[in-house]
Amino acid sequence: MAIGLTYDAFIWLEDLSNPNTLKFIEEHNRKFKDFIDNLSNMFIDRIKKYYSIPFITMIKATSRGVYAIVRELNVYSVKLFGWNKEVIDVIKSKDLGKHIVIGYIYPSPSGDVLGLFYTVAGSDEGFLRIIDPESKEILDELKGSVGNVVWIDKYRYYYARFYRSGKTPDGVKAPAERVFLREITSGSEEMVFGEGIDTNYMIWIDEPWDWSRVFITVQYGWVKSVVYGGYRSDPSSWKLLFDGGEYLVKPIGYYNGVPYLAYYDKEGLGRIIRITNGRVEEVVGEQNYPLSKAIIVKDRIYVDYLVDAASRLKVYDVNGKLVKEHVFSEPSTIRALDFYNDRVFILLECFSRPPTIYELSEEELREFYGYKVDLNLRVSEDWTTSFDGTKIHMFVIEHKFRRRDVAIVYGYGGFGISITPFFVSALAPFIEDGGVLVVANLRGGGEYGEKWHRMGMRENKQNVFEDYKAILRHVRRRGLKTIGWGVSNGGLLVAATMVQDPQLFDAAIIGYPVIDMLRFHKLYIGRLWTTEYGDPDNPKDREFLLKYSPYHNVRKQRYPIMLIYTGLHDDRVHPGHALKFTAKLEEVRAPVYLRVETASGHLGSSPEVKVKEYSDIYAFIYKALQLK
């Protein structure tokens, strides 16, 4: 292993401009295409059937109605769902260029100005364009990792810029973030927040229901934060409201000038506090399950709790008295809580239905816009026990009338991100054919609170792999073949688990993965992840990173057939991770295939590119496991 510390035979694959790297990609794409032959053509139309169902990715309510980003079959659209039910197409991705992904929208409260952030082929860096939604006139445009727009008036807005490389204007080394005030007519801007805030801190501006004010959250990685607040029109009034110390704190809203926050101390499940004249008062104590998100609208607090990784909405008054509780008929996810004046909206998603907009009227849910589809799904929940006695939860999704002996086991387990119910969409044909989808809720995520997250980060990362192994064993004991599937940090999950215990897999699918745990911090924005994984430049951290780093633990043994896939426009997780892992596996003659998409990044790509990517993954699954 000492050689691996000083010598990397495949480091040249990190250079995407190297002709030899491009040749490596071309040869492996050809090898993969030869393996699947024309089988992917059998799945394209089946995937399109479900990918064509309108899928809402973001909403923002305004005086004109609810603006939304909607993914459709061949396009991303920004639509306006008016109060009288009319639907207006504001702009389509094809109007912006080829392979465009519209990631975020920022309409002004009046709805007469619209900011949208879009990227080419799913890169993190893109364009923030300000337009008149009626005339489509371009009023302003910025380039880079920019967004988080908060409007002061029609002509002025705040935005945040994330510095991926180099230094901030005040000389802090990237990755770091700063907030600017920009004036549309002159194009002038000034930095108004963030001076001196160090590397690996992220900054968000939040708009509470009290329009006159804003919150600013400064968060170190994914582990701790502080909250500032002040008047929207005066950055000099933005003062520290609460320091979470070693814990996360998130803003909820103001009521009568008093700030309300969610604080993740104690058991890490989240309690609601308010700050009155510098005094901290608990409004709603910790529940038996974690607080996911919350907002204050008028005199009500709307709180999304996760109960076994599914949303439950509770409504409190501002003194913490429970007013209403909404338990959904099937496991669901509240993707967003939003408001306009006194109107409250939620974006709700489940395995059998794409995200649907609901309005809360007199504390009752009323559908505002959605699309119904009948997939004949049966959704159930199951548990297993990890190596140390920890209970691990999973969702099991299958067809009501058909079942075969193969399961996709999907997991993530990191960054405090909760894997909650999602519309199966591109996975629907697999389930239609009788395949089973198992969604794992592993340590490292946020499904059971901040302690759950910390039990799976840094030196505790091996817990995540052991949890995943426990679920794989559980599924196999039920007579099912197992296909491990994970993307990004989930790609690390599948890769590390497979290198450690390959016999638990019949096939592995590893997407856009983090693989080399000794060099991730040197590639693109990887330095930011040292807060979650540890710092390879620290000898103590390097020791536990080396123990599980998939790239450094490949050895000659029997591996399952696997597909590693990535995209050249991924400027978050460097494609070199996938390329180097492929080369390392080929050294020990593992049955590995590599697919590199030329028009896709970490944020995805245009719908037509994603349909093709999914159809090739289907072809791999059916060919590798000889499914009919």
Task: Give the helix/strand layout.
Layout (H helix, E strand, L loop, with lengths): L1 H5 L12 H18 L4 H11 L3 E8 L2 E7 L4 E7 L4 E6 L7 E8 L6 E7 L5 E6 L6 E16 L2 E8 L12 E8 L5 E5 L7 E6 L6 E8 L3 E8 L7 E5 L5 E7 L2 E6 L7 E6 L2 E6 L6 E7 L2 E8 L2 E8 L4 E6 L4 E9 L2 E8 L2 E9 L2 E6 L7 E9 L5 E9 L6 E5 L17 H5 L3 E6 L8 H5 L6 H17 L3 E7 L1 H12 L6 E5 L18 H4 L5 H10 L12 E7 L8 H12 L4 E6 L9 H18 L4
Parallel strand pairs: 30-31, 30-32, 32-33, 33-34, 34-35
Antiparallel strand pairs: 1-2, 2-3, 3-4, 5-6, 6-7, 7-8, 8-9, 9-10, 10-11, 12-13, 13-14, 14-15, 16-17, 17-18, 18-19, 20-21, 21-22, 22-23, 24-25, 25-26, 26-27, 28-29, 29-31
Helix pairs in contact: 3-11, 6-7
> What number is the mean pLDDT?
96
> How many strands, which pairing sense, and closed or not: the largest β-sheet?
8 strands, mixed
CATH class of the domain at 2-48 and 375-624: Alpha Beta
Uncertain ranges: none
The portion of residues assigned to helices is 10-25%
- The N- and C-terminal alpha carbons lie at a distance of 43 Å
Number of helices: 11
Form type: globular
The beta-strand count equals 35
Structural class based on helices, strands and sheet pairing: alpha+beta
CATH architectural grouping of the domain at 2-48 and 375-624: 3-Layer(aba) Sandwich
List keywords for this structure.
628 residues, alpha+beta, Rossmann fold, seven-stranded antiparallel sheet, 11 helices, globular
